[in-house]
Amino acid sequence: MLNRRLLKGVFFIAATYSAAFLGPLVVMGPTLILLWLRPSLFRWVNDRLMVWWLVLPTALLELMFGVKIVVTGDKAPKGENAVIIMNHRCRLDWLFFWSVVARYGELKHEKIIMKHELKHIPGPGWAMQNALYIFLKRRWEQDESYLNSVLSYFVNYSDCLQLLLFPEGTNFEDVSKQKSDSFAKKNNLPFYDYVLHPRVRGFTYCVEKLRQGKLDAIHDVTVGYSENYCFEELDLLRGNVPSEIHFHIQRFSDEELPQDSQGLEEWCCNQWKDKEDRLKRFYTEGKQFGAPSELAQGKQDEVETAVRFLFLKGLIFWLVFSISVSFLMYISALVRWYVLLFGAVFTLLSLCGGTDKIFLQQSQKPLNIKTK
Length: 372
Fold this sequence. Notes:
Elements: H1 2-28, H2 34-37, H3 39-64, E1 68-73, E2 82-86, H4 93-104, E3 110-115, H5 124-130, E4 134-136, H6 140-156, E5 162-165, H7 174-186, H8 200-210, E6 217-225, H9 233-238, E7 244-253, H10 261-284, H11 300-331, H12 333-351, H13 355-371
Parallel strand pairs: 1-7, 2-5, 2-6, 3-4, 3-5
Antiparallel strand pairs: 6-7
Helix pairs in contact: 1-3, 1-5, 3-4, 3-11, 5-13, 6-8, 6-13, 8-10, 11-12
């Protein structure tokens, strides 16, 4: 059993990384010219290309490992502009959340605020740059200008935006809990056992900026696992994945939220206090957030059928893609040079700041010409 799980884990990593490495080179590479010629078309194309990779690890987790996704709470409209906030139990929460978006949202609209280091991973980092994920160094004096630039773009962006961020700033583990407890002691706050005290500045900044033209609601997501354990990338390699992942969603329209900075900060802290209580009940009373409510009503069987069909399409696409590209690289020097060329181009662009920053610079040019 252990060997079978390990083999599945090795296959999962090999399949997802090879797709994440070859995909940007072969499929996204030719779109780079649009960065300078048609930035808006570059954005539209890469948002949709990114969906095909997001489907792959999600499909493998559910179809190969048998991970069960349980979603309770509010059902948010698909085309809604929203900030999504979630507790950060493990290093892979963002990946597991794609299963929810595949069912009840649209993957092409999701953007994630992530650690800056992930930006430069060959392959996945290039794809996320192209998809305009937001990479922060977690130092406000270095991040504020960039965050302002990318959020200003999204405010004027014609397509839908669903921005996922983790107010805790890092995942829940022993070291981060000690820091959270130290912060709580210094500020006369309660100690938490299931969440970290949120860092509210970034959350408030994002909400207030997007309120300038691009915010319908906040989706507050609480995630809990069948094993109360901090899953990380090496667990995927070992085939160690949770058997069940539970997501509880609360939707708050912008109108019912506080409209000032201090009120938003207090609201976020109160939500985290509620999360602590909710997760305590989850892990001590049967690992359920409660009976499915709105999300279980209506056409649930149709949703599951549709998402299975999406997963199968994704698996077939990547199987054909990987075999075809590998074969062509084997028989053709031209294809090998093609892959090598775009590998060098992506590496150079990444060293120069990344395609995300180049895109923002190019998309602002017409604006600057108008104002002169």
